[in-house]
Amino acid sequence: MSEPAGQPLLISIADHPSAVTRLWGPQDAHRRLLERRLDVRLTVRGSDVVVHGEPVRVARAERVLRQLLRVAAGGGALFLQDIEQAVGVLESDGTVDLGDLQRASVLTTHEHRAVTPKTTHQREYLTAIGRSDLVFGVGPAGTGKTYLAMAAAVAALQRKEVKRIILARPAVEAGEKLGFLPGNLAEKVNPYLRPLYDALYDMMEMERAGRLVESGVIEVAPLAFMRGRTLNHAFVILDEAQNATRDQMKMFLTRLGFSSKAVVTGDLTQTDLPPNKDSGLEHAVNLLGALEGIEVVRFTHVDVVRHPLVQRIVRAYDAEETR
To answer: Which of 16, 142, 199, 240 could form a disulfide linkage to 304, CB 3.0–4.6 angstroms apart?
Structure first.
């Protein structure tokens, strides 16, 4: 950090003295992260947080700290990744209200953890899912496309808005040849579907999820198994849709029946289709995106909610593709 300049800024914590303890985190780990990301020095002086640094950095730090202190004072969960995410979000959009994002909970998991949007695009995504019958979520890995869709599906099932959840994925090999693995058809396709089970088990107890799968209330299947069906009263998620061909995408989208909702997710930069096959997701987004009742939400590296390094990796690949 460059030599501090200008007058230190005082942010009062008198009304919520315990908030700063939660904000600083265990052994001040959050404070050190904030100092590094915001390029300022943070101390507590009596009933104030003191921000030392260059004026432009102090002003940016003030926006971030005031919002994070309100979240901490309101009892919102704050982990190291939440701090990192909040700084990134507020840097990209200074109008974001972190408290509004915290309050936009879509589901409380079996571990009593609220599933909430972390970015404005994630909130837009959940709003679109609630409003429209078909939503495309397009963007890089780690942006919560599948996870939030799964949370919305489980919440809809709990509210009895749908009678079943159907989770589908194209069974396309990502460079590895799995066709000669031993086992029956279900055992061969299970590796492709494992990420959907992982997300499901994060939402509800494994035993309960297993019972719902056995009874058919929740179905996890390869995309090819959707052919010839009509899906009524269902919440349908098509994951990794960039690996669906045009014909497969048309087949899937025409399966929707009455009182059904579909969410289609994918990353157009990570298709595993053969070079002579066009992505059905890209074609569908371009063809159908403007139709009434259909919404497209596009995520960026700012929405990545995995390890902070993932954001930098996504940006590096994006920059190379742009060049």
So the answer is: 142
CA-to-CA distance for 277 and 246, rounded, in angstroms? 8
Beta bridge partners of 135: 263, 295
Q: What is the full DSSP assignment across 22-67?
A: HHH-GGGHHHHHHHHHHT-EEEEETTEEEEES-HHHHHHHHHHHHH
pLDDT digits (tens, 9 = 90+) for 186-234: 555 667 678 888 888 989 999 999 999 999 999 988 898 888 888 999 9
pTM exceeds cut of 0.70? yes
Pull the structure tokens for residue 323.
Answer: 């060049």
Residue in 293, 299, 28 with CA at minimum distance from that of residue 148: 299
State the CATH class of domain 107-322: alpha beta
Residue that is written with structure tokens 């919520």 in the block: 16
- What does the pLDDT look like over 253-299, one tens digit per residue? 999 999 999 999 999 988 888 888 889 999 999 999 999 999 999 99
SS3 193: helix
| Domain 9-103 CATH (choose: 3.30.420.40, 3.40.50.1010, 3.30.720.210, 3.30.1370.10) | 3.30.1370.10
Q: Are 255 and 229 in contact (CB under 8 A)?
A: yes
